[in-house]
Specification:
single chain; about 150 residues; alpha/beta; Rossmann fold; 5-stranded parallel beta sheet; two-stranded antiparallel sheet; about 45% helix; about 20% strand; MGS-like_dom_sf; Methylglyoxal synthase; EC 4.2.3.3; methylglyoxal synthase activity
């Protein structure tokens, strides 16, 4: 499939997600970077989004809990170009009943080429990047051209 360019604006729409055993680590990471994150539009799946809002007072658009469909909601937002990056403190040591949804979420984030961090070290790299607070172009699938070719 051909690609096209999408510009991620300086104010990013950021998904904050964490498995149960990684929620405290994500909350601590958000506390460390609260000032920078407050300049962006934050989204969180169920419990994670609510905890971040309660503990830090940050405005977080809260989706459903991951196992209840929040991962799929987030994946839909990525596919609709309504999400710019994702910080997902994934727990690889504990199987979750919604592992297929998690795999699908990671797949769709990769397909649409958004920046993704699965741990604190990578999240630190993303947030300290000069691109974090600036517009940046990324390459995404040119789905419109693909559809036009398929309809011919």
């Amino acid at each position: 499939m051909e690609t096209t360019t999408r510009t991620l604006q300086s104010c990013k729409r950021i998904a904050l997600v964490a498995h149960d055993h990684r929620k405290r680590a994500l909350i601590n990471w958000v506390k460390t970077h609260r000032t920078l994150l407050a300049q962006h539009e934050l989204y969180g799946t169920g419990t994670t989004g609510n905890l971040i809002h309660q503990e830090m007072g940050l405005n977080v658009h809260t989706l459903l809990s991951g196992p209840m469909g929040g991962d799929q909601q987030l994946g839909g937002m990525i596919a609709e170009l309504k999400m710019d990056m994702m910080i997902f403190f994934w727990d690889p040591m504990n199987a979750a009943p919604h592992d297929p949804d998690v795999k699908a979420l990671m797949r769709i984030a990769t397909v649409w080429n958004i920046p993704v961090a699965l741990n604190a070290a990578t999240a630190d790299f993303l947030i300290s990047s000069s691109a974090f607070n600036q517009p940046i172009d990324i390459h995404i699938p040119d789905y419109e051209s693909y559809l036009k070719q398929r309809l011919k």
